[in-house]
Design goal:
Layout lengths: L9 H8 L4 H10 L1 H7 L2 H26 L8 H9 L2 E4 L7 E4 L4 E5 L7 E5 L8 E9 L2 E12 L14 E8 L4 E2 L5 E2 L2 E8 L14 E10 L9 E9 L8 E11 L11 E2 L9 H14 L14 H8 L5
Antiparallel strand pairs: 1-13, 2-5, 3-4, 4-13, 5-12, 6-11, 6-13, 7-10, 7-12, 8-9, 11-14
Length: 322
């Protein structure tokens, strides 16, 4: 009798699973019931979790197991899916963000178009001549896709944002050695730029509609250090690098980081982000939110990653700081 799926060895299912994302594994288990006996085992997901996220990730998983009553010690697939789903950071809690601005007109405000009820906005006509918005995020090694949700409106004279005069850059920095506190109490750290995209590069997908745009700007990789599993600190930022002649209404709603999994379509160009369609159930999404908040609840999230003297301050204003 010819072999069938029911007679395939368990090792083959495990090998197939290494080329699939977590959502694809769920679909594979539904389509091939014989695979469920192997790919639904708690020890499979626990081993995969440790393999992908290391000891630090394992410690986070144990903590989320303890603080979410609906998670049992067997729900390693649930915690794994929570770790790899899209993480969203909004501006409802303004204290979690660093805002370095020349002027006093950049702050959170109620916004009916926002997915969260509040956006971080520049009022039209503001004397603000430059700004720098950032947040430090603790993240596992891997490849990630960056997207921002923002909108433009006309200035007080009715002029719309001129896309060809874009003065904004979306940056990702990777800290080489983490954050440290110097003798003077200042936060210092060595970092390098791993992704930088100008707003002008997205001119083909950004339109003057007065509505929010959700744009995927690119991908970046976080190496895992000598162990291959060392978690790192990154800084997600948007910076104005030159003064525009007319200040327009500009609002930020959220930034999203999506870990790239096996089987995901490759990133080829800057494009509008389709509404995030998660195949996960509500429990998985709750776990994802819990993990995101627990891992990134540290006081350095809104602290500049380097000491600023006068010359560095001027360089930052002009957008020349690395």
């Amino acid at each position: 009798m010819p072999p069938n799926l029911a007679t395939l060895p368990a090792e083959l299912y495990l090998n197939i699973s290494t080329h699939l994302s977590s959502s694809d594994i769920i679909a594979f288990r539904r389509a091939v019931p014989f695979a469920s006996a192997v790919l639904a085992r708690p020890e499979y997901w626990k081993n995969r979790f440790i393999s992908d996220f290391g000891i630090e990730g394992y410690q986070y998983a144990l903590r989320i197991h303890g603080c979410q009553s609906f998670i049992s010690s067997e729900d390693w697939d649930l915690v794994y899916r929570g770790m790899v789903t899209q993480w969203t950071f909004n501006f409802v809690n303004r204290q979690q963000w660093g805002v370095v601005a020349y002027g006093q007109f950049l702050d959170t405000r109620p916004d009916l178009q926002s997915l969260h009820g509040y956006s971080l906005a520049i009022e039209p006509g503001s004397p603000l001549t430059w700004y720098h918005v950032f947040r430090n995020i603790r993240i596992a090694p891997g490849t990630y896709r960056l997207s921002w949700r923002f909108k433009f409106g006309p200035d007080r004279s009715g002029l719309w944002y001129r896309r060809e005069r874009s003065a904004y850059r979306f940056n990702i920095y990777l800290y080489e050695y983490g954050l440290k506190t110097g003798d003077d109490g200042a936060v210092v750290g060595s970092r390098k730029l791993v992704l930088s995209v100008a707003m002008g590069d997205a001119r083909g997908v950004v339109q003057n509609t007065g509505l929010f745009h959700d744009i995927i700007f690119g991908e970046f990789s976080v190496p895992g250090g000598e162990s291959g599993h060392e978690w790192r600190m990154i800084s997600v930022e948007i910076r104005e690098t030159e003064t525009l002649l007319h200040k327009f209404d500009f609002a930020l709603d959220q930034v999203c980081l999506k870990r790239v999994e096996p089987g995901d379509k490759p990133f080829t160009h800057i494009r509008s982000n389709e509404p995030y369609q998660s195949e996960l159930d509500q429990r998985s999404l709750t776990v994802a939110s819990g993990l995101r908040d627990m891992i990134n609840a540290f006081p350095e999230s809104a602290i500049l990653p380097f000491s600023l003297n006068q010359s560095e301050y001027i360089r930052l204003m002009l957008g020349h700081t690395d």
